[in-house]
Amino acid sequence: MLLTLVLSTVLASAVQADLPRSLAQEPPKQDPLRTDPITTPAPHGFVDFEWLELTPSAGFAVYSSKYLADPAPAFSIRAHAPMPWLSPKSDPKGDYFGLFAEAAFATIDRKMSPSVADRSGVCMFVSAGVDFSFLRDPTWILTARAGGLYAHYNNVADLKSGLGPMVGATIGVQLSGRLALTYSPEVVFGESGSTIFFNTLGLLIQL
After folding, report:
1. Considering its fold, how many domains does the chain have in total?
2. 26 in a structural domain
3. Residue pLDDT tens, the chain, 207 long
4. What is the span of the domain harbouring residue 199?
5. Could you give phi then psi for residue 45, rounded to 5 degrees?
6. CA 186, CA 171: separation in Å to the nearest integer?
């Protein structure tokens, strides 16, 4: 009888060893009635393009006195995406630091002598940089940004195209989970202390 017991133990071990690993070590089945909360993994990577946002805007560009120009219509479109790797460990899903890129267009009509050619035209401003979300909840959005900008004055008289810094902010009210109404003031710094102050209203769209 002892011999029979030993042989049974050896055979059972051999059968277990021959089974595939997935069957030999199959985890216990979960109770189908159990309702655990659904958890979404935190975003990862340098930039999270799954949360890409576009903000088309329209308003006015206010030129400093050195431009010799009155306020004029302005239009822009801005893209924003968060950088999850800079989110604090206390809130890994928070949208704090992000990257933005923007293209803006504004007309200009300089108050110069009629004999001067090309006194008016359409200027283009392309900027990129880093932004920081101070507040982003189901009701409000508050973001500040800073970066570099290239201004192209399209051969308007006595204006030289070139690079410069810019700063801006966005104050928004959420309309839904993917839409928000925004006000975005921005300041562009040019040569010799000249500035352009953009005031635009826009619609933030989460893609």
Report:
1. 1
2. no
3. 544 544 455 445 544 444 444 444 455 555 454 444 433 344 456 777 888 999 999 999 999 999 999 999 999 999 999 887 766 655 545 568 899 999 999 999 998 887 788 889 999 999 999 999 988 888 999 999 999 999 999 989 889 999 999 999 999 999 987 899 999 999 999 877 899 999 999 999 998
4. 49-206
5. 100, 175
6. 12
Q: Which amino acid is at 54?
A: L
Are 198 and 61 within 8 A, CB to CB?
yes
Residue 192 confidence (pLDDT)? 77
C-alpha to C-alpha distance for 88 and 43, rounded to whole angstroms: 12
Q: What distance lies between CA 106 and its chain's CA centroid?
A: 23
Phi, psi of 67 (to 5 degrees): -85, -15
Q: What are phi and psi of 124, to 5 degrees?
A: -125, 140
The answer to whether 147 and 184 have CB atoms below 8 angstroms apart is no
Let me know: does 87 contact 113? Beta carbons within 8 Å: no
Tally of CA atoms within 13 A in the half-sphere of 190 that contains its CB: 17
- With vertex at residue 167, the alpha carbon angle to CA 164 and CA 173, rounded to the nearest 5 degrees, is 150
Q: Residue 114 belongs to a domain with what CATH number?
A: 2.40.160.20
Q: How many other C-beta atoms lie within 10 A of the C-beta of residue 183?
A: 15
